[in-house]
From TrEMBL:
<feature type="domain" description="C-type lectin">
    <location>
        <begin position="7"/>
        <end position="135"/>
    </location>
</feature>
<dbReference type="InterPro" id="IPR001304">
    <property type="entry name" value="C-type_lectin-like"/>
</dbReference>
<dbReference type="InterPro" id="IPR016187">
    <property type="entry name" value="CTDL_fold"/>
</dbReference>
<protein>
    <recommendedName>
        <fullName>C-type lectin domain-containing protein</fullName>
    </recommendedName>
</protein>
<dbReference type="Pfam" id="PF00059">
    <property type="entry name" value="Lectin_C"/>
</dbReference>
<dbReference type="InterPro" id="IPR018378">
    <property type="entry name" value="C-type_lectin_CS"/>
</dbReference>
<dbReference type="InterPro" id="IPR016186">
    <property type="entry name" value="C-type_lectin-like/link_sf"/>
</dbReference>
<keyword id="KW-1015">Disulfide bond</keyword>
Length: 142
Protein backbone atom coordinates (compact mmCIF):
# COMPACT_ATOMS: atom_id res chain seq x y z
CA UNK A 1 0.00 0.00 0.00
CA UNK A 2 1.05 3.57 -0.59
CA UNK A 3 0.27 6.48 1.65
CA UNK A 4 0.66 10.01 0.22
CA UNK A 5 2.32 12.60 2.41
CA UNK A 6 2.41 16.28 1.56
CA UNK A 7 3.11 19.64 3.08
CA UNK A 8 3.65 23.18 1.98
CA UNK A 9 7.03 24.84 1.74
CA UNK A 10 7.67 28.54 1.19
CA UNK A 11 9.14 29.59 -2.13
CA UNK A 12 12.61 31.00 -1.71
CA UNK A 13 12.19 34.61 -0.61
CA UNK A 14 8.54 34.73 -1.65
CA UNK A 15 5.27 34.49 0.21
CA UNK A 16 3.73 31.99 -2.21
CA UNK A 17 4.08 28.27 -1.60
CA UNK A 18 5.30 25.03 -3.14
CA UNK A 19 3.87 21.74 -2.04
CA UNK A 20 6.28 18.83 -1.78
CA UNK A 21 4.62 15.47 -2.11
CA UNK A 22 5.99 12.17 -0.83
CA UNK A 23 4.56 8.68 -0.93
CA UNK A 24 5.25 6.20 1.86
CA UNK A 25 5.94 2.75 0.40
CA UNK A 26 5.24 -0.02 2.85
CA UNK A 27 7.51 -2.56 1.17
CA UNK A 28 10.78 -3.62 2.77
CA UNK A 29 13.58 -2.99 0.28
CA UNK A 30 17.33 -2.49 0.19
CA UNK A 31 18.44 1.09 -0.47
CA UNK A 32 19.25 0.30 -4.12
CA UNK A 33 15.92 -1.47 -4.68
CA UNK A 34 14.06 1.41 -3.01
CA UNK A 35 15.85 3.91 -5.25
CA UNK A 36 15.02 1.86 -8.35
CA UNK A 37 11.36 1.61 -7.32
CA UNK A 38 11.12 5.36 -6.66
CA UNK A 39 12.78 6.21 -9.97
CA UNK A 40 10.44 3.88 -11.88
CA UNK A 41 7.19 5.00 -10.23
CA UNK A 42 7.86 8.50 -8.89
CA UNK A 43 10.99 10.68 -9.03
CA UNK A 44 13.57 9.43 -6.49
CA UNK A 45 14.24 8.91 -2.81
CA UNK A 46 13.75 12.16 -0.87
CA UNK A 47 16.26 14.97 -0.51
CA UNK A 48 16.07 16.46 2.99
CA UNK A 49 16.78 20.20 2.88
CA UNK A 50 15.17 21.42 6.09
CA UNK A 51 13.79 20.46 9.49
CA UNK A 52 10.34 20.57 7.91
CA UNK A 53 11.38 18.04 5.24
CA UNK A 54 12.87 15.92 8.01
CA UNK A 55 9.66 16.03 10.06
CA UNK A 56 7.59 14.90 7.09
CA UNK A 57 9.79 12.00 5.98
CA UNK A 58 10.43 9.79 9.00
CA UNK A 59 11.44 6.18 9.54
CA UNK A 60 12.56 5.32 6.04
CA UNK A 61 15.46 5.19 3.64
CA UNK A 62 16.37 8.65 2.37
CA UNK A 63 18.24 9.56 -0.80
CA UNK A 64 21.62 10.15 0.83
CA UNK A 65 24.51 7.85 -0.08
CA UNK A 66 28.23 7.85 0.63
CA UNK A 67 31.14 7.38 -1.72
CA UNK A 68 33.21 4.71 0.06
CA UNK A 69 36.38 5.94 -1.65
CA UNK A 70 36.08 9.22 0.27
CA UNK A 71 36.48 7.74 3.74
CA UNK A 72 39.67 8.96 5.38
CA UNK A 73 41.24 6.47 7.76
CA UNK A 74 39.41 4.03 9.99
CA UNK A 75 36.92 6.31 11.74
CA UNK A 76 36.98 9.54 9.76
CA UNK A 77 35.05 10.53 6.69
CA UNK A 78 35.01 13.28 4.14
CA UNK A 79 31.85 15.35 4.77
CA UNK A 80 31.67 16.03 1.04
CA UNK A 81 31.39 12.32 0.30
CA UNK A 82 27.65 12.22 1.19
CA UNK A 83 25.61 12.96 -1.92
CA UNK A 84 21.88 13.05 -2.73
CA UNK A 85 20.92 10.35 -5.22
CA UNK A 86 18.46 12.62 -7.05
CA UNK A 87 21.11 15.23 -7.88
CA UNK A 88 24.50 13.54 -7.42
CA UNK A 89 25.52 16.58 -5.36
CA UNK A 90 26.24 17.33 -1.73
CA UNK A 91 23.67 19.42 0.11
CA UNK A 92 23.31 22.90 -1.36
CA UNK A 93 21.77 24.17 1.87
CA UNK A 94 23.96 22.23 4.29
CA UNK A 95 21.10 20.79 6.37
CA UNK A 96 22.07 17.61 8.25
CA UNK A 97 20.41 15.67 11.04
CA UNK A 98 22.95 12.98 11.95
CA UNK A 99 22.45 11.13 15.21
CA UNK A 100 25.21 11.34 17.82
CA UNK A 101 28.46 9.71 16.58
CA UNK A 102 27.00 9.26 13.09
CA UNK A 103 27.98 8.60 10.40
CA UNK A 104 30.38 5.95 11.67
CA UNK A 105 30.66 3.46 8.78
CA UNK A 106 30.57 0.55 11.23
CA UNK A 107 32.59 -2.42 9.91
CA UNK A 108 33.28 -0.41 6.75
CA UNK A 109 29.89 -1.34 5.24
CA UNK A 110 27.55 1.60 5.96
CA UNK A 111 27.13 3.79 2.90
CA UNK A 112 23.35 4.43 2.85
CA UNK A 113 21.18 6.51 5.18
CA UNK A 114 18.10 5.55 7.15
CA UNK A 115 16.03 8.09 9.01
CA UNK A 116 15.04 6.68 12.38
CA UNK A 117 11.57 7.18 13.92
CA UNK A 118 12.93 10.12 15.95
CA UNK A 119 14.04 11.85 12.73
CA UNK A 120 17.76 11.34 13.31
CA UNK A 121 19.91 9.98 10.48
CA UNK A 122 22.13 6.90 10.74
CA UNK A 123 24.29 5.23 8.15
CA UNK A 124 23.42 1.59 7.45
CA UNK A 125 24.56 -1.15 5.10
CA UNK A 126 22.76 -0.61 1.79
CA UNK A 127 21.76 -4.29 1.77
CA UNK A 128 19.56 -3.90 4.90
CA UNK A 129 15.82 -3.65 4.21
CA UNK A 130 13.51 -0.88 5.40
CA UNK A 131 10.32 0.87 4.38
CA UNK A 132 10.95 3.92 2.25
CA UNK A 133 9.46 7.16 1.00
CA UNK A 134 9.49 8.31 -2.61
CA UNK A 135 9.62 11.93 -3.62
CA UNK A 136 6.67 12.41 -5.94
CA UNK A 137 7.34 15.98 -6.99
CA UNK A 138 6.71 19.57 -6.23
CA UNK A 139 3.52 21.34 -7.20
CA UNK A 140 4.32 24.92 -8.08
CA UNK A 141 1.74 27.05 -6.34
CA UNK A 142 3.71 30.26 -6.82
Amino acid sequence: THQPLSYKESCFGLTEEHEKTYVLIRYLRTWNDAQTYCRQHYKDLPIIESAEDNANVQASWIGLIDDPKSWKGTMGNDVNSWIWSATGDTSRIGYRNWDLLQPDNLFGTEFCVMMESDGMWEDYPCRDTFHFVCYQGKKNLC
